[in-house]
Structures are given as C-alpha cells and as structure tokens.
Design brief:
Layout (H helix, E strand, L loop, with lengths): L7 H11 L2 H4 L10 H18 L4 H6 L3 E3 L2 E3 L3 H11 L18 H14 L5 H16 L2 H12 L3 E6 L15 E4 L5 E11 L8 E10 L10 E6 L1 E3 L5 E3 L2 E6 L10 E6 L6 E4 L6 H5 L3 H29 L25 H32 L4 H37 L10 H8 L9 H12 L6 H18 L5 H26 L3 H5 L2 H28 L8 H17 L3 H9 L16
Parallel strand pairs: 3-6, 4-6
Antiparallel strand pairs: 1-2, 4-5, 5-11, 5-12, 6-7, 7-12, 8-9, 10-11
Length: 604
C-alpha cells in the first residue's frame, strides 16, 4: 500500500518556516526541546502511522465498531494505538513534567497527531479524548483525583471521555438533566443518560474515566447550574481492585463514516449505585469544560484538514497514473491515433486538484496558526501578550473548526470527481474519506453554532478588539506582499475584501444594537464563509511572500518547484475562491427576510 497519505515537506514547511516553531523553543517551558528532537518525534509518529494505522484504514471501515451484550467491540488496532500512544508519550506530550508530561509545544503535538489523522482518522480520537479528559482532571481536580486516574490515562491503559450531550438536549447544554445527588461519604450519586460519547467503551481499556456534566440537586437552571464530575466505569476500591460503578453501555451508534471510532450511548445509575466525584467547584462545570473546548475544536479542524490532505494525495496519485482521453489540438479536435493523455494533463482535472491542494494546505496552515497562538498563551510573559493572543485565538477558533470541515468536504468531493466512476467504488479510498469527513462539521458544535459564535460573540467581544487585532495581523502580510511586484495585486484584493467586510458589519450591527439578534444572526453561516475565505486567503498570501523570497535564495531548504507551487496555488485561490466573497456580501446585505418565521407561516 502507498504511504503517501501526507505531505511531510509541506507540513514541516508550515510548522517551521511559516509559523516559526523554533521561536517558541526559547520560552522557558520548551527550553529542553530543540528542532532535532521535535523532528524525531514527528518522524517517529509517521513511522508508527505507516505501520500501525494506515494499513488498517479500509479494514476498520469494513468491520465497524458494534454493541453486543452490553459491550462495544472495536478493531484490535485500538489496543495498539492506545498502548503505543502511552508509550511514545503522545497522550502525555503537552502536559507539565510534574504531571507526567513532556512539555512538548502544542504545535508540534498537533503536527504529529495530524499525521495519525491522515493515516487513519478512525484511531487517533481514542488517545486524544483520553488526553482531553486528563487535562480537565489535572487542571481542576484535587490531588486524590489526579493520583487515582492520571497515571493510567497517560499510559493509555485507561480511556477517557467527555460526556456532554443528552438525548433531549442535543447541543443545548442548558437543558441537560443528568442529576448528581450529594452523599455523606463525599461522592455524588449520578443518574442520567449521555449520547454521542466518542470512544465511550471498548474491550481494550481496563477502565473508562468519564468526565460528566450534571446538575447537583437544587442547582440553578440553565448553564449556571452545571457541575463537572469524574465518573469512572469501574471505581477503585481501597485494596486497589476495580468494581463496577453502575455505568451501562446502552448502544453504539452505527454511522455513515468513521465507523471504526465507536460512538456510544451511556446510562448512569440504573441501579442507583453510580458514584461521581466533583471536579473543582460546584456549578462551574461548563466553564471548566470550555478549558478544553478550544483544543477540541482545533482537533476537529486538524482531523478534517488531515482527511482533506489524504484524499488530495490519493486523487493526485490517481491522476498521475490514469490515462484517459487526449489533449485538444489547435483545431479543437482530438487525434484518436495519439497516445492517451494522463488525466492530470486535462485543465479541469488540474482545477480540481488545485482546489484540493489550496484547501488541504490552507487548512493545515490555519490549524498551525491556532496552535501557535495556544502555545504563546500558555507561555506568555506578560498579561498584555496573553490577552492579545487569547483574543486572536478566540477570533479564529470558529473558523479553525469550520473551514477545514466544510471546505474539506468540498475538497474530498472534488477528489472523488477526479477518479470519476472509480471514485464511487469501494476499491478506492475517496468514497471513504468523503463519508469520514462529513462528521467534522457536526463535532464540537455544528457549523451553524460556530457561525453564530463567530458573528454573535467573537466579532463583538470587547467592542470588536479581537477583530481589530486579527485585521492588524492580516495587514502585516498585505503590506509585505505589496512590496513584491508580482504579489501586490493580490495584496490589494485582500485589502479590498477587508474593507468589504467592514461594510457588511456596518449593515448588520444596527440589528444587534436594537436587540434584533435573530435578524443579526440569521445569515451567520454566510459571514462565516466570507471570513473563512479571507483568512485562508491571508494564509496563502503569507506563504507566497515567504516562497517568493526563497525562490531567489540559492541556499533554499526546499526545491524551487516546491516554492513556486505555493505561489501558484495562492494565485489559484485568489482567482477561483476569493471572488466568492462578493456574492456572499450581497446576500448578507440583502434586506429581504426569508428564513425568519413571520406572522404568516409559509410551507417548507
């Protein structure tokens, strides 16, 4: 099997050259690491992924996780990935030394797990969710909770999950009803159900540590009354043995994609003996959960970006090997006696491949940008620096989660089209990538939720300070590009799109100021698409500025073709994608109200 599912050159170029990972290593937290050690870490993960993830990609789709006799049965590679993620330090990578971690930059960890995602997106979620659950216990839990759970979680022996969603509440966390009743023994009795719990049960973990949102008896209504609890599947007895904690696996959801990544329905307290332990303060559960929400949304974008890359690499390889048709002659006719052309020679196929490339690589750059901001926040040397990068991260988080998910699906769809009829057949991986990536726009808040977050919260936070900081960052790149003769036209175009976004917001803001938030947010998804195109255009222009300098550098790190391909793809993105902002702006500023329910109900 081909292992060309990821472009390591582009990954390292973006991580090291564009987003300057080396600059972070001078910070105290990362001083024990250097570029060589981080390179070795990423390369080791690539070798591991080649051997233990990629070969099972198709097999895990064909033999999905399933529920039987109260248990979830998953593919045997789940055990390998969990154990090896513990042994290799992947789960522990970003934690402090004193907590059993390696203090590796978040950016480097995202690069490594991106490789795993691209190799087989059904597997990395198991250790990643364990890492996320451990993060909450380390940050907010007492010493007893840390000592009881963290070592086995970081070793990949115990799994971890996040239990938010309930059957009747969906994404509306203010409506959760899972109960937590205090006892004299110091624990709480937990009762309720949670659905869509990724990695919630399987035969290859000795225990599962569920982080559960629930309401303590008498808690306030809404999100202000939610608390966070550690609820293990098996609780630890005084003699060190484990006993069942009344956590029942009711079902495993059968899905269109990511079929090897189990998604469970859990029941707590069916026999009134489910015990949970409060994490941190009462009624602070949602705030605590949001500690990991930015990381979780970056992870979703990272996974979608990786699937888009793997699909691009697959369709690119196919296009370079598949002969079909012949090039048109100057008369507009084909010569049937000529040798068939490879389909990569056809302009329409090249258009689709360039679209895939622009989305896949642009998405990866976006993920690394967010990861860099996260690293700066955790190592900030002043409150001013921390506030600046926290605002920047908050501004782009909805885009990081949404663009790779939505545009990534479009990218994979185009890859499927490159393969033609074979793209629809199970012999090739494009149909599986197409099914797998579709969940990304639903994970951790749907596209509609992310869009309302961007326009409703992030644009308006601190009177627009976050948006102003982002515009300033974009302007730095525009100014640099304007100094290059063959880039200045693209700098001007991006500047025009920023001005147009100001016009759009000037049209929308009065609705918010008058309290008409339904009208203000009615087309938030269009604003998300607009801003996503602008931000990705910025990142491509940033790549082009760097590539332009390196083309003229005789001591360049990569080939001239490598750098020229970045410039060419930037030009493609500005020709084919950036103009879409015009129609989006027209729709956003159109005063016709067609989606808000009026006095007269129209039949849909």
């Amino acid at each position: 099997m081909s292992k060309k599912y990821v472009d390591l050159e582009t990954l390292k170029y973006l991580l090291y050259d564009i987003h300057s990972l080396e600059n972070l290593l001078s910070r105290e937290r990362f001083q024990e690491h250097d570029m060589e050690s981080l390179n070795l870490f990423i390369d080791a993960v690539k070798e591991f992924s080649d051997r233990e993830l990629y070969p099972y990609f198709k097999e895990m789709d064909e033999t999905p996780a399933y529920h039987k006799d109260g248990k979830v049965i998953v593919h045997k590679q789940v055990e390998t990935v969990m154990r090896k993620s513990g042994e290799m330090g992947i789960i522990a990578a970003s934690f402090n030394y004193e907590d059993g971690g390696l203090q590796i930059p978040f950016s480097a960890l995202q690069a490594a797990v991106y490789v795993m995602d691209a190799a087989n997106n059904h597997l990395p979620g198991y250790p990643s969710l364990t890492q996320g659950a451990a993060e909450l216990i380390i940050e907010f839990g007492n010493e007893t909770l840390k000592e009881t759970y963290i070592p086995n979680m970081l070793a990949g022996i115990w799994g971890g999950t996040m239990c938010l969603t309930e059957p009747q509440a969906g994404s509306s966390l203010s409506d959760i009803v899972t109960k937590a009743s205090p006892t004299a023994e110091g624990y709480y009795k937990i009762s309720g159900q949670k659905i869509f719990i990724s990695g919630g049960d399987h035969q290859y973990a000795d225990n599962f540590v569920h982080l559960v949102l629930a309401r303590i008896d008498g808690a306030p209504q809404g999100t202000k009354g939610i608390s966070l609890f550690v609820v293990p599947k098996k609780r630890l007895k005084k003699d060190g043995s484990l006993e069942y904690n009344d956590v029942m696996t009711i079902a495993d959801f059968q899905k269109m994609g990511q079929r090897g990544y189990c998604t469970t329905h859990l029941g707590f307290g069916d026999t009134d003996d489910c015990r949970g332990w409060l994490v941190g303060e009462e009624h602070k559960g949602l705030n605590q959960m949001f500690l990991m929400m930015n990381g979780a949304r970056i992870a979703v974008g990272r996974g979608a970006a990786a699937i888009a890359m793997a699909a691009y690499r697959t369709s690119l390889q196919y296009a370079n090997e598949r002969p079909q048709g012949r090039k048109l002659t100057s008369t507009g006719k084909k010569n049937p006696t000529e040798k068939q052309s490879l389909i990569i020679e056809h302009p329409d196929v090249r258009r689709m491949l360039l679209l895939q490339k622009s989305i896949a690589e642009g998405s990866l750059s976006l993920v690394f940008l967010a990861s860099k901001y996260q690293d700066i926040i955790t190592t900030a040397t002043s409150e001013e620096e921390k506030e600046k990068y926290n605002l920047l991260l908050e501004m782009i988080i909805p885009i990081v989660k949404t663009f790779p998910s939505e545009a990534g699906a479009e990218s994979v769809d185009n890859g499927l089209q490159v393969l033609g009829g074979y793209g629809f057949c199970t012999d090739f991986g494009l149909q599986q990538y197409y099914r797998d990536i579709r969940i990304s726009s639903l994970y951790e808040g749907t596209t509609g939720i992310q869009s309302q977050d961007l326009l409703g919260r992030k644009v308006t936070m601190q009177n627009g300070k976050g948006l102003a900081l982002l515009v300033t960052e974009i302007m730095h790149t525009i100014e640099a590009a304007a100094k290059e003769d063959d880039l200045k036209e693209y700098a001007a175009v991006l500047g025009e799109k920023l001005k147009l976004s100001e016009k759009v917001l000037a049209h929308l803001m009065p609705f918010a100021m008058k309290g008409n938030y339904e009208r203000y947010l009615a087309d938030a998804n269009l604003f998300m698409e607009y801003m996503s195109i602008v931000v990705i255009g910025w990142l491509w222009l940033e790549m082009a500025v760097d590539a332009k300098k390196e083309v003229a550098n005789s001591d360049r790190k990569y080939s001239q073709d490598f750098y020229e391909s970045k410039i060419h793809t930037m030009k493609f993105y500005f020709k084919y994608e950036v103009p879409k902002t015009v129609s989006l702006a027209l729709s956003l500023m159109d005063d016709r109200i067609l989606t808000i329910k009026q006095d007269k109900e129209y039949i849909l």
